[in-house]
Amino acid sequence: MAEHNDVGRLGEEAAARYLVLHGYHIKERDWHIGHKDIDIIAEKQGILVFVEVKTRSSMNYDAPENSVDNDKKRYLLEAANAYVNMQQTDMAIRFDIVSVIKEGTFYKIKHFPNAFDASDWKPKHIQYKRF
């Protein structure tokens, strides 16, 4: 496995432990539908929380949370919609980001509850072709 995959996996582990310590019940980890995935699906106080985890091995790059762009938000929204429909749940939902920076053997974690919602992204312009 590539080193960046190891860093990402360890970051997701750290994020899950952080969430559990803060009262979240982890329902799913690395949930997939097609080519879309959700890192962590959790529940807290009757709210279904879809969590995107972004991990970096250093601060040599932009803050991890800044890498959740409109395309990633759209994928998360579509995957969350599929999950909600498959589970046939009517729970309130929320989208969080957990930013993880590995510093030696420690992890610096920032949690951004309600980081975005469906109104935060604009769908790409679709160009229709005539037949």
What does this molecule look like?
It is a single chain. By secondary structure, the chain is α+β, with helices and mostly antiparallel strands. The protein has one domain: Trna Endonuclease, Chain: A, domain 1 (3-Layer(aba) Sandwich). The chain is 28% helix and 39% strand. The protein has two helices and five strands; from the N terminus they run αβββαββ. The protein has helices at 3-21, 70-87; strands at residues 25-33, 36-44, 47-56, 92-103, 106-116. A five-stranded mixed sheet has the order 1-2-3-4-5. The radius of gyration is 16 Å and the shape is globular. The protein starts with a helix and ends in a 15-residue tail after the last strand. The model is unreliable at 123-131 (pLDDT under 50).
Give the SSE map.
Elements: H1 3-21, E1 25-33, E2 36-44, E3 47-56, H2 70-87, E4 92-103, E5 106-116
Parallel strand pairs: 3-4
Antiparallel strand pairs: 1-2, 2-3, 4-5
